[in-house]
Write a structure and sequence with these properties.
This protein is of the alpha/beta class. The protein has a single domain, classed as 3-Layer(aba) Sandwich (Rossmann fold). About 45% of the residues lie in helices and about 20% in strands. The protein has 5 helices and 5 strands, in the order βαβαβαβααβ. A 5-stranded parallel beta sheet has the order 3-2-1-4-5, with helices on both faces. α3 packs across α5. The longest helix is centred in the middle third of the chain and has 29 residues. Pfam families: Usp. InterPro entries: Rossmann-like_a/b/a_fold, Universal_stress_UspA, UspA. This is UspA domain-containing protein.
Length: about 150
């Protein structure tokens, strides 16, 4: 019986480091890699409630297109990593949201019965982490799955 091991990816070096750590230390023959990416949609310009409807400009359409292209390139990078470096099957678990990536990662992992969630640690300052929180902290404290947080390289 194969395990589905979910690895959270974004464009950061920490994400790539987590993927490489997984390949070297946790992957077993027959495991399937679940590539989780939460695509953050570009925000619409802010306007007050009294302003009426918000016109969607050509620039906004262009920013969405560029954002989707970046996510597709990221997915292709990690699919290639699975095929060419780990030699394993993979499952793309891509979603988009304006909301908390941490909550979505937990939901995706539970829905797909993941054996583990592997993710990199961005290394926010203590102040930033206290003020904003971090995705890895959220997942670590809210997931019903085991979580491996690969620390930043010093």
């Amino acid at each position: 019986m194969s395990r589905l091991n979910c690895i959270c990816v974004d464009e950061s070096n920490e994400s790539e480091r987590a993927f490489e750590w997984y390949a070297a230390n946790h992957h077993r023959t027959g495991d399937v890699v679940g590539i989780i990416h939460v695509h953050q949609m570009p925000s619409l310009p802010s306007m007050g409630l009294k302003a009426g409807s918000i016109p969607i400009t050509e620039d906004y359409h262009h920013s969405i297109k560029k954002s989707v292209e970046k996510s597709n390139a990221l997915m292709n990078k990690y699919k290639d990593f699975c095929v060419n470096r780990i030699n394993c099957d993979y499952k793309v678990l891509l979603t988009d949201s304006h909301h908390s990536p941490g909550q979505l990662i937990c939901e995706i992992a539970a829905k797909n019965d993941a054996a583990v969630i592997v993710m990199g640690q961005r290394g926010l300052s203590t102040f930033s982490r206290a003020l904003l929180g971090s995705t890895s902290d959220y997942v670590l404290h809210h997931s019903d799955r085991p979580v491996i947080v690969v620390p930043r390289k010093e």
